[in-house]
Amino acid sequence: MEWETVLLETRGNVGVITMNRPQQLNAINFTLGEDLVAALEECRREDRIRSIILKGAGKAFCSGGDLMMARECIDTDPPDPYRQLTKRYNRVISDIRRLEKPVIAAINGAVGGGGCSLVMACDLKIASRTAKFRQAYTSSGLVPDGGWFLFTPLLTGFSKTNELLYLDPVIDAEQALAMGLINLVVEPDQLDAAAFEWAERTAAGPSAAYAISKGLINESMLLMLERQLELERQGIIKAAGTEDYREGLNAFFEKRRPSFSGS
User: Fold this and answer.
1) Between these two residues, 79 and 37, which has the higher pLDDT value?
2) Is residue 90 part of a domain?
3) DSSP conformational letter for 74
4) CA atoms within 13 A on the CB side of 176
5) Residue 227 scores a pLDDT above 70
6) Contact 217, 227 (CB under 8 A)
7) Number of structural domains, the chain?
8) Does residue 89 lie in a domain region?
9) In the sheet where 60-62 sits, what is the strand order?
């Protein structure tokens, strides 16, 4: 199968999904959201694929939502891009969790905004030592989405979640490992091999038991996830209607520190 913004390669029993917008740091637009849904569905239907690697082309894993798309609507209907994009993005997050096969994130570089939720939705996460993580939403006057408010407390705890939310630090790979956001850190030139090793190992494992086990993990959180995705969708739409968001977006493109008014 061929898509505009996603590559799907099959290596034995492993499916490799590559987000392919390298010039945009694999930022999620409408097309990438739809293509990811289609690629995940192809992996679900193809019995030969028993494990999946999710990665990004170029220098980044995924920088989050496409702010160029948001910029085009800043003077007309600022919330609309988020109103439309979250329909696709939330489906991607939900489909990763519902896919009865292991999904391994191979994190080669920058992860920001919605890219963080994409990583956290995956079953296993391996990062290059050069990878960087940033929540990023609140620095632009927005609120996290994609299940961030469910995944982050589960993985890192309440206090660390608040630190990421209010201070929005840049986290390196070793810090992400210590916090529980990822499972393994490797050297950049070892990332593909490490991800494929885990993918082959899980592909050779008891697929039925893995599917049942993933379902049991989901039973403890999936109902909360579906509700949380919708609540966060409404939250980011509301935040995108504020003056702080307008200031945050303009400051991002003007490469300056935003001056938030609280309105």
Assistant:
1) 37
2) yes
3) T
4) 30
5) yes
6) no
7) 1
8) yes
9) 60-62, 110-112, 132-134, 170-172
Whether residue 41 is contained in a domain is answered as yes
The amino acid at residue 66 is: D
What average pLDDT does the segment 135-153 reach? 95
Using CA atoms, how far apart are residues 35 and 204, in angstroms rounded to an integer? 27
Percent of the chain with pLDDT over 70: 100
Is residue 261 a part of any domain in this protein?
no
What CATH number does residue 63 fall under?
3.90.226.10
Question: Residue type for 192, please?
Answer: D
The pTM assigned to this predicted structure is 0.94
Range of the domain at 77: 6-189+202-210+222-254
For 165-210, the three-class secondary structure string (H helix, E strand, C coil) is HHHCCEEEHHHHHHHCCCCEEECHHHHHHHHHHHHHHHHCCCHHHH
Residue with tokens 């960087």: 132
Q: Do 161 and 116 contact (CB within 8 A), yes or no?
A: no
